[in-house]
Amino acid sequence: MSADLKGAVLRKLGDEPRWAGLRFRRELPLWLTEISAVPAYNPNIEDKVWDHSTFSANRERLFNEDLARAFFERVKLSAQWGRLASDEHFSVDGTLIEAWASHKSFKRKDDDSGTPPGRNPEVDFKGQERCNDTHQSTTDADARLFKKSTGDKSRLCHMGHILMENRNGLIVDVEITHANGTGEREAALAMLGRRGNRNKRATVGADKGYDSKAFIKGCRKLKVTPHVAAKDKHSAVDGRIKRHEGYKTSLKVRKRIEEAFGWIKTVGGLAKTKLIGQAKLAGQALLCFATYNLVRMGSIGGWWDAHHA
């Protein structure tokens, strides 16, 4: 299993040019050995990293939330042991991950007409009012029709959330939820509640989407100062929060969280998941962010040149 886990991590880095990734590919297995406590596997440059048939057979076990979270936590503990991660200052944000489902699969829940004949039947849903209360994807029941901003197109997707520590931009928690209007704030509170040393005061930076009375009240209950970007009108962020110099610093540093989202959607291949169901996606996301942390930690420590990854 550990060899398959290494193969999965290396596969996340498979999009970089071979000539640029050779040194990184040689050194990464040695680092993974320290984390997973298995014998070292140090292939030659021309050796195959994994056998595709073995990887395919074990993928069902790899994309498991419990296994992936255990690996993610081991990577996080390594960062904390090396004093690379802060336990006081965090940032939080969410992104949409497109589901492996088409608009044609989004049908009324009471529709028992079955699938039209043919490989790719013509479906006309123009002019129809479709919403998540009355419709559901027959391909991925966990996917929701959603858009984050006005003017954007609605799509079937899941919502991914991460908690980033502000010292080095490492990801310390991951959550996958249904895509809805309150999912970001609810997931942020859940992740803040799981942070280590909860008796210690902390801060969290966030964008205007988190500017709500419920979120700010929830943060204060968790002994977290919410450094949330204030809305122009009807803001719940009061003067007690904005008067501190740390508030401006948090709003500046929180933008680094987009680097992690950019990495998992390009190198990590999570712009659109190829897995069906929220449980498998959670495992894939945890594995992807664990790999991102490994790349980031290696770059910080100077153990390898990871600019290509």
UniProtKB/TrEMBL annotation:
GO molecular function: DNA binding; transposase activity
Coiled coil, from the record: none
Family under the similarity heading: Belongs to the transposase 11 family.
Pfam families reported in the protein's UniProt record: DDE_Tnp_1
Matches recorded under PANTHER family: TRANSPOSASE INSH FOR INSERTION SEQUENCE ELEMENT IS5A-RELATED
Location of the Transposase IS4-like domain: 143-294
Sequence segments annotated as region (Disordered): 106-141
KW DNA-binding (keyword) present: yes
Feature: compositional bias, Basic and acidic residues: 121-133
Lineage of the species this protein comes from: Bacteria, Pseudomonadati, Pseudomonadota, Betaproteobacteria, Burkholderiales
Keywords: DNA recombination, DNA-binding, Transposition
GO BP terms, alphabetized: DNA transposition
Listed InterPro entries: Transpos_IS5 (IPR047959), Transposase_11 (IPR002559)
Keyword RNA-binding: no
Name this polypeptide is given: DDE family transposase
NCBIfam families per record: transpos_IS5_4 (NF033581)
